[in-house]
Design brief:
about 20% helix, 7-stranded mixed β-sheet, alpha/beta, globular, about 35% strand, 6 helices, Rossmann fold
Length: about 240
Amino acid sequence: MAPHLLDDAPDPVVVAREDDGSGEVALRRRGAVLELVVDGVFAMDTVDTSTERVLAREALAAHGAPARVLVGGLGLGFTVREVLADPRVDHVDVVELAEPLVRWAGEGLVPELAGLVGDPRCTLHVGDVADVLAGATGPGGPWDLVLLDVDNGPGFLVHARNAGLYAPAGLAAARARLAPGGALLIWSSHRAPGLLADLGTVAGRGDVVTELPLRVVREGRSLDYALYSLARAGVAP
């Protein structure tokens, strides 16, 4: 996700908008650009999807045999597609809170989301990824990789209730769902030293916590994003 808009772009055209009770989700076209807006908060667009892809690539590079992957947040599907491009991946569970977004993907409403539903290596689940990581609902882990891109980071939440994902209890729950040698990666539209510190707090013996700054030039502006990871100790297959 990237909370920045084109300054001189044409007015948006709403492709679809729906409120399913958990919040309003909308897809908009701005010329050739597709935008995702959640509860009035700009979530992401297709101007530059490099960081969504980097999230997947960094995660895949951190594991020798990432057979099972959990992706929190469907977005516009770029992270999921990058994960599926790796032949080592046997299955990807995608957990998305907005039911309309999952349904639109199934209907092939926009080409950016088409083809994910029906892929035997990918299952889209409607639900709260925090509940999944806490073990309160399916799908069940453990996973070799857990990727979280449900917000623009802990300081730019799409849903206020997502704050718990980045708190120590939420991070500890995510760590507990990792298989030995697995890794948790979190995308942020800003540097988040508090998140880095909390990951260190929940890390176990032998775990490795890292911050990877990402400099992206977008519409002529230089932006500092970041990836945060916790690699769980143990021997991956």
